[in-house]
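Researcher: We're reviewing a set of sequences before deciding which ones to prioritize for further study. For each one, I'd like a predicted 3D structure that I can look through quickly. This is NUCB2 protein. If possible, include the structure in token form so it fits the rest of the review sheet.
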Amino acid sequence: KGEGHVEGEKVENPDTGLYYDEYLRQVIDVLETDKHFREKLQTADIEEIKSGKLSRELDLVSHHVRTRLDELKRQEVARLRMLIKAKMDSVQDTGIDHQALLKQFEHLNHQNPDTFEPKDLDMLIKAVSAGYK
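Model: Here's the predicted structure for NUCB2 protein, in token form for your review sheet.
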């Protein structure tokens, strides 16, 4: 009773219902480990976030954070490719264009599957915003 939120305590957020919810949560968790980015995130208003202004701050995060984000993106691209393969296997149609299927996934830049760039953060934010309309 009467206990408040403790600094650094993990708060469980409800599932967003987005098919990339786990990726979204992991990106946020990693970004919040960078003190500068966390401060910018806490002071940014919703319009700054949606406009992509916050995404430009990604260039200022530590190398360790960028390396971890790159790793997360590669894992997400691999997961999406696995989903596409499963879909292809289920329909047994050999004429499917992988790049066309990847374009369905608008929460990351599929043309650059190896590194997490400001464009990826911007696309993730825009996809989340569109998912809640």
